[in-house]
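Quick log. Single chain, no ligands specified.
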Amino acid sequence: MRRFAPALLRIIGLALAATGLPAAAITVDPYYAGSYAAADLGSVPGVPPLYGGLTFKFDDPNVILIGGYANNAPGTLFSISVVRGVGNHITGFSGTAAYFADAAYNDGGVTYGPGHVLFLARWPVNELGQTKPGSSSTDKIINLAPFGVEGSHSALNFVPPDFPAAGHLKLVTWSGGQWNDVSIAPDGSGTYDVTGVTEVPASRLSGGPEGFVFVPLGSPLFAGPSLLVSEYSAGRVASYELDTNADPIVTTRRDFVTDLSGAEGAAIDPLTGDFLFSTFGGG
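-> predicted structure:
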């Protein structure tokens, strides 16, 4: 059973003004420490443990969506407004989180896809959930087992427009780290069918992977297209370089953040490019 203190961690570039509390006992790897610093944003008011993944609302960069009651049938997505300080960096939260949508079994992957449909990883039931804009229900659920997804998938994300293989949906499993390239197609109802899943054996990830993000191109110390992965089992965030299909090259793995117990979700602040990571939480 997964049980760690629920919280959010913000990683910012040191060239930008840093505000907020230092992240006690959380370490940015020495390779990156000259360019990045960590700040602990604490627990999100009103979001019950256990925490799942997170993303920013597509039409409001000052609102975060984050999963509560993760990995369980009562799983729910909550919305919370953020407070921004010097340099527009997030320093905390405003008010109390509110119910946003049903999200049973939500896990480390919560992300917007085409048509602003929310795609959600559902663990341990190995399902892909979809919620249409304006809906508070999970409008479509797809069982991934028939597509060869092993165990249960834990996170997913779409490759950004300026990356190789732009628009591809990538999916990973916990705890085995199976990495997959997923094909989708509109189903005529505002949601999407899965039309194929291709496992990439050479990109199997270690550390018990959860949420992952594609690093904005041009970020300091990331020479080319790269990935950051929350490693739940290892309590770390790892970086990887990507190949021409936007799949991680496992031999390039490097620690980015260590001592992050329960590393779960991952998101990028659309206003600053800061990295945000959630931890699972437990009571």
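The chain has one helix and 22 strands.
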